Amino acid sequence: MRFRHEYKYLCTEGQMEILRVRLNNIMKKDIHAESSGGRYRVKSLYFDDMDNSCFWENENGTDMRVKYRIRIYNDRRDYIALECKRKERGLTWKESCRLNEEQFAFLVHETGDVQIEQLPKLARKFLLLKKEYQLSPKVIVSYERTPYVYPAGNVRVTFDRDISSSRNFEFFFQNDPVRRLILPAGQQLLEVKYDEYLPDFLYHILSLPDMQCITFSKYYLCRKYHM
Q1: pLDDT value of residue 223
Q2: Exposed, middle or buried by CB within 10 Å (0-12, 13-18, 19+), for 61?
């Protein structure tokens, strides 16, 4: 199990543009964004139990916490990923597996004829937890992401714009007409993730005056609108 460092910063559009110009000649765009102009839309369906344990663990700052989500990109059905994200001692770890549409419908809506033993290992674990703790869909989090990568340290820098919340689960694979933005106009999110180390020159490039590291959970803020 490899944990990663993850830091988040609120930025203005002007700060993001400065960083984008700095990074364009140093870091490469994520290969998955090359076919969509260097950016893509991320959409995640988050689950919680009947007591809203994940929400309250975020609220209370519980040290070790786990969330399950199903993620797609650009509203496409050909890449559906079930993910388990764990946060512990300020570090993060993620496990994921691919799902097809039939498996998605089976896990989320309990429809279709799917052989449980043919599900990926993580999906079987999720199904057991879903039944034991009565996990159900709680919120959809969506945003536009511009991702940069650097091999040394396995660094990933992302600009996330237009972070929004929705409970229109029927529009998960569509362009949801009713989404609620969770940040004030002009504020966006910068995320910096890496394994063992962040190269010094990248640290200095990413450092801007008045830009401070914050505690930020897209899931928590999006759910607050619907509690």
Answers
A1: 95
A2: exposed
Rounded-to-integer distance, Cα 144 and Cα 209, Å: 25
The predicted-structure confidence for 133-148, as pLDDT tens digits, reads as follows: 999 999 999 999 999 9
Residue the block writes with tokens 């870091």: 27
The string of pLDDT tens digits covering residues 47-76 is: 999 999 999 999 998 989 999 999 999 999
DSSP helix/strand/coil, 103: helix
Cα 177 from Cα 186, distance rounded (Å): 21
* Burial of residue 4 (number of CB atoms within 10 Å: 0-12, 13-18, 19+): middle
Task: Write down the pTM of the prediction.
Answer: 0.94
Tokens representing residue 160 in the block? 């996330």
Q: Residue 170: beta bridge partners?
A: none
- Dihedral angle computed from the Cα positions of residues 164, 203, 147 and 123, in that order, rounded to the nearest 10 degrees: -70
Q: How confident is the model at residue 1 (pLDDT cuts 50, 70, 90)?
A: low
Q: Where is 28: in which H helix or E strand?
A: strand 28-29
Task: Please enumerate in sequence order all residues whose Cβ is within 8 A of that of 165, keeping only pairs 6 or more positions apart, or say none.
Answer: 139, 140, 141, 179, 180, 182, 221, 222, 223, 225, 226
Residue keyed to tokens 């450092």: 207
Q: Do the Cβ atoms of 40 and 144 come closer than 8 Å?
A: yes
pLDDT-based confidence at 111, cuts 50/70/90?
confident
Position 15, amino acid: Q
Q: CA angle 152-154-72, nearest 5°?
A: 150
